[in-house]
Amino acid sequence: DVDGLPSGNVLVGSGHCFDCINTGGTERAAFIAEIERSSGDVVWRADMDNPKDSLYRAQYVPACELFAHAGKCPELQAR
What we know:
Elements: E1 2-4, E2 10-14, E3 31-35, E4 42-47, H1 63-66, H2 74-77
Antiparallel strand pairs: 1-2, 2-3, 3-4
């Protein structure tokens, strides 16, 4: 899964099938990463520790939609 982010970077979610043939098996782990579009540099990356863990999709959600912190979310201060 690859999604564009408001910053212009991309969010990449890479899963795999541990028990499937030719998918990396125990040699590959699922991960989520933010990639800078212009340079290809990794901004941050989270790897799954267990190769049997996987994912289907990574989805960007603005932090202020999850955590109502008035000091960090200007739109909440106006209320």
